[in-house]
Give the backbone structure.
Amino acid sequence: MTAPHPASAPSSSDAPVILLAGCGRMGSALAQGWAASAHPPRLVILDHKLEKAPGNAPIYRQVKDLPADLAPALIVLAVKPAGAAELLEALRQHLGKGLTHSTLLSIMAGKSCADLARACGNPDMAVIRAIPNTPSSVNAGTTGLYAGPTVSAPMKALAHQLMSDVGAVVEVPKEEDLRAVTALSGSGPAYVFLLAELLEKSGVELGLSRETATQLARNMIYGAGKMLHDLPQSAATLRQNVTSPNGTTAAALDVLSAPDAWPRTVPQATRAAAKRAAELDD
Ligand SMILES: NC(=O)C1=CN([C@@H]2O[C@H](COP(=O)(O)OP(=O)(O)OC[C@H]3O[C@@H](n4cnc5c(N)ncnc54)[C@H](O)[C@@H]3O)[C@@H](O)[C@H]2O)C=CC1
Ligand SMILES: O=C(O)[C@@H]1CCC=N1
């Protein structure tokens, strides 16, 4: 995984142009990570309401405002799935060949490569799908990536590089695998943030100040995440190393590992997320 870069480097003028279409929560997480990366891309942003772009990329509010001769190498589609077809139609009208000659990199949890190609009016349109996550904003992202059959090797390499600049990239062999990726690493940060919220609350219930409970919960999750990332041991071994026989951790794990607790609810939650991803694909 890429280490954070303390200062943003300027993008090179011969770097390929990337159009980021949609710069909300996930789009801006990527833009922040790219601005802080070693080789910031030449980003052009399309967003209705974004005020200030990370790395000072130019922002256009509407498709009709984009330079008509814009020919981005990649168009990163970072809007909600429901708005994708309308946006692609507008881009097709406005950019013409600038759309069909570029490669789509959809980060949407939903809409298949075939659907997106159809929405571009070109069944052979090159479409890559990637599911990133918000830790990309601090260059610690996790992205699952699938390249459709008409994607050229250089464009696949460019997409891979772009996502590697903000974290780790895992390629999956089947497009449907992206539903499981979404359930694990796409939505996953929210599960960890929920755990942090609940730990903070229970720390307060145990008598700590809100500030102390928050600091303990956040730093503990950071440290456990760093061990999982940096060390070769399995998660099970790391867990066992914390758990003294008949000690405090065992008392807590008796609750969390009960058959009706996490062993049931975690798979239930990821199945629900994957099912929703499948619905958003259709
Ligand atoms: N938020 C997350 O953690 C993740 C989100 N995704 C995917 O990323 C996509 C975006 O999600 P969020 O960033 O959370 O949504 P969001 O609602 O925060 O961002 C969407 C942005 O697109 C802009 N937009 C929409 N249509 C536009 C148009 N026609 N022209 C210009 N700007 C337009 C909106 O102004 C907004 O800023 C979704 O498809 C989601 O499935 C994927 C992985 C993780
Ligand atoms: O909740 C969602 O649908 C998006 C996809 C993964 C994370 N956020």
